[in-house]
Design brief:
The longest helix is centred in the middle third of the chain and has 20 residues. The chain has 6 helices and 7 strands; from the N terminus they run βαβββαβαααβαβ. It is an alpha+beta fold. The radius of gyration is 18 Å and the shape is globular. It has a 7-stranded mixed beta sheet with strand order 2-3-4-1-5-7-6. Strand 3 and strand 4 form a beta hairpin. Helix 3 packs antiparallel against helix 4.
């Protein structure tokens, strides 16, 4: 049986929102001592394997090259995670990345996927409305360069008006085919049955 990482599971913080909705992360980074990192993770029961572009796994962490990151850029992709346990595993993996030389620079981003298998047209319309209302505020808490980064573009007022005017069935169909390089990427619905938040910088 697959061993779980030997790390304490934190208790939920009072008032903190932790749900069972599955999530996954894509961590862009540089300077990682790859072989040492993979070995360290294996010794603690977590499988990390080298993968190809667009490869994902239901169980393993996938490490792949990333041409959008300066130098010898890498992207570490999680399997689906959930709840407090998922957050504990994520923290553990990030700690191991740091321990093995992993760094970030201005070209690195952090992408977070949330499962959207149960979201219907009205749900997606509501999410789009909330995003349109608060995206400027959200970009303000990120590195200023993220607002003009072509890999996490803002939703324009025209975009919002176009999508919001569509019927429930049409909005689902059209959001699934939008440009994926957006701060809130609805195109992930078609590929992963998720919505992806791409605006965060690597830290």
């Amino acid at each position: 049986a697959r061993r779980q990482p030997r790390t304490a599971t934190p208790a939920a913080v009072p008032g903190e929102l932790v749900t069972s909705r599955r999530f996954g992360v894509e961590i862009e980074l540089t300077h990682l001592r790859v072989d040492a990192f993979i070995s360290d993770m294996a010794s603690h029961g977590v499988t990390v394997r080298r993968g190809r572009y667009a490869e994902n796994s239901p169980e393993d962490w996938i490490l792949k090259t990333d041409g959008s990151v300066h130098g010898q850029g890498l992207e570490l992709v999680s399997p689906p995670l959930s709840g407090v346990k998922g957050l504990a595993v994520l923290k553990y993996v990030i700690d191991m990345v740091k321990a093995n030389g992993g760094q970030v620079d201005s070209s690195c981003g952090l992408h977070v996927h949330h499962s959207a298998q149960d979201l219907t047209g009205p749900h997606l319309r509501n999410l789009l409305t909330i995003w349109h209302k608060y995206q400027d505020m959200l970009y303000m808490v990120c590195d200023p360069a993220r607002a003009s980064n072509r890999y996490c573009a803002k939703l324009t007022p025209e975009d919002f008006r176009t999508y919001h005017a569509m019927s429930d069935s049409a909005i689902v169909r059209n959001l699934r085919s939008m440009d994926r390089y957006a701060g809130l990427n609805f195109a992930a619905l078609a590929r992963h049955s998720t919505v992806e938040f791409r605006l965060l910088e690597g830290t």
